[in-house]
Amino acid sequence: MKASSILNEADLDRILIIKPSAIGDIANSLHFLRGIRQAHPKAKIGWLVNQSYESILTNHPDIDQVFSFDRNIWKKNLGKSISSFWQLVRKLRVFKPTLTIDLQCLLRTGILTRLSGAPKRIGLEDCREGSSYFYTHLVRYPTKGMHAVERYWEAAKFLGCTGEIPPASFPIDEAEKTHVLNLISRLPRPWIGCCPGARWLTKQWPSSYYAKTLHKAQSETSGSIILFGGNDDCKNASEIAALIPPETPVLNLAGKTNLRGLIAVISQMDFVFSNDTGPLHIAVAQGKNIISPFLCTKVEWNGPYGQFHNTVSTSVPCKGSYLTKCPKMICLDDLVPEKLFPLVERTVQKWKASKT
């Protein structure tokens, strides 16, 4: 159903987007945001996000107001969670959305969609946990197995967007960028970035594999290896740094930046190695050349949009299983460093060609 048949311009006057988490999912939904802003330049756009990720949307040029909630309070303290919940609802009501679209589509976000007060409430057809009860309309997909970016773009078309999917963007904090440059500016180029962790263990390529592959990239370019990520990535990053020959320039920034700092680090990399995790999609949104091993997830569903050719997937029968735990991990016997070497060589040659 076309947007024009169910929505009028007044419905799109004040749009609330609900997409609380996580980093990669937020990155993939920024194409949707760009399209909405282009199609409705006068609309007021709000975004509801988990407080942990608020900083990456603050000062985004396409967002007029960011709303956040502390999910940890909701988990730990019933009294505070109820109070916090109704404070959030009041803030959403003050915003007075004419249309709320839920890109998360879970029970909690469905309830918030309903309580936002918007007369038009949009969800996606693959909504879960009974959240469809709270929407006035559902966006249907033309085919199964679409990439997340394409699914969100179907929602954008429902709201009147046309044409090709626009690029995503993350605002770069200039102070963080200056700080990052102070740390890395004396290191030889290219700057070879790597985020070695992931929330699921089944997404994590081994540290020894990364060390071998990063060293190959560095030895062919005489550049520097820069490791980054959150606190959960520190162990993997330290293991990699310890395995790389001591004469190799290595800077380990894992756990040493906030989210805005992480975005600034990625913005300065010449190419980025990463598992299927949030920083991978930030790098893609910034137009970086990426090199990514894929184990338990499917590139066509969750891969780096527009850069599927810069991934290498395991070929074992259970690939793309989406298991968060696996007792065998036979994919690691299959997806060894040597299988990424041709991609590394192509990426290095592309970088060298850009410098001539």
Structural key phrases:
single chain; Rossmann fold; 2 domains; 6-stranded parallel beta sheet; 13 helices; 12 strands; globular
Through-space gap between termini: 50 Å
Overall residue-averaged pLDDT value: 94
How many structural domains does the protein architecture include?
2
Task: Figure out the total of helices.
Answer: 13
Percentage of residues in helical conformation: 25-40%
Name of the CATH homologous superfamily of the largest domain:
Glycogen Phosphorylase B
Helix and strand topology:
Elements (H helix, E strand, L loop, with lengths): L13 E5 L4 H17 L4 E7 L14 E5 L1 H6 L1 H18 L3 E4 L4 H9 L4 E5 L12 E3 L8 H11 L15 H11 L6 E5 L11 H15 L2 E4 L6 H10 L6 E3 L6 H9 L3 E4 L3 H8 L3 E6 L4 H4 L8 E3 L17 H4 L6 H14 L2
Parallel strand pairs: 1-2, 1-4, 2-3, 4-5, 5-6, 7-8, 7-10, 8-9, 10-11, 11-12
